[in-house]
Description:
Largest sheet: 7 strands, antiparallel
Mean pLDDT: 85
Distance between the termini: 33 Å
Oligomer: single chain
Low-confidence stretches: none
Helix content: under 10%
Number of helices: 0
Radius of gyration: 19 Å
Order of helices and strands: EEEEEEEEEEEEEEEEE
Strand order of the largest sheet: 4-7-6-15-16-13-12
Shape: globular
Structural class: mainly beta
Amino acid sequence: MADFGLSAVNDFGSVVISSEYKIMVFSERGTFKILSQYTDAEGFGAVTFAKPITTQEPPQVFVRVVNGVHADLGLFTTILGGPGSWTGFQVVSAVRGNPNLQNYNMEYVSCMYSNLRSASNYGLELYDSLGGVIYSSSDNVVRYGKFTKSWTFIQGDIVDVYASGLVIDEDDFVSISSIDKGVNWFTGHSQYAGLTLLSGGVRTLQIHNQKITADWYYQGTNGTCLAIPVCKFPASRYFNT
Length: 241
């Protein structure tokens, strides 16, 4: 860190609070449904935040599959609103090969960069050079559990798959805002790109890319690095106030 300021380090030597970097904190949690009308049609789900998130940066949204009718779940995400007023998110699911409806019960957690004054009359607050809040002791700091570190490339004629290799536990929440519709990581060669969270009834984390052209990263991931966080949000610690 800089020659002055504040830095808090955990037992593993990682910086968790710093006056130099923005801090991701818990915003709210809730449930929603993804519902479809026909077996050969996509499913749809949407969430409106209880309070708009007022950061310039978009929130980070994590979801957990509670249960579902369909054994597979692939989706893409769109964050709703804009800088200074992020109002929610919506997801569209698209899977095939099963006669069941794409209906699922989901749980979500939204997170944001800290920017609010403390709700208590005592505690600690950190400010940036412009006087904006970057941490308050009233905040509930996000504890990251694991990240995707490498991807196994599986080339298809129309759809390429990138497998993370991570084991996803039943209580794990996967960041779905890491891959949204129109993400630039696919460099304009994707007709559809999304995350697969359920495959054959097993929790997983994969990227599916339906290609427009057949030569997109034909040799593999081409050195591209993309880390998707996976976290646990126990209700005893992360709850709405």
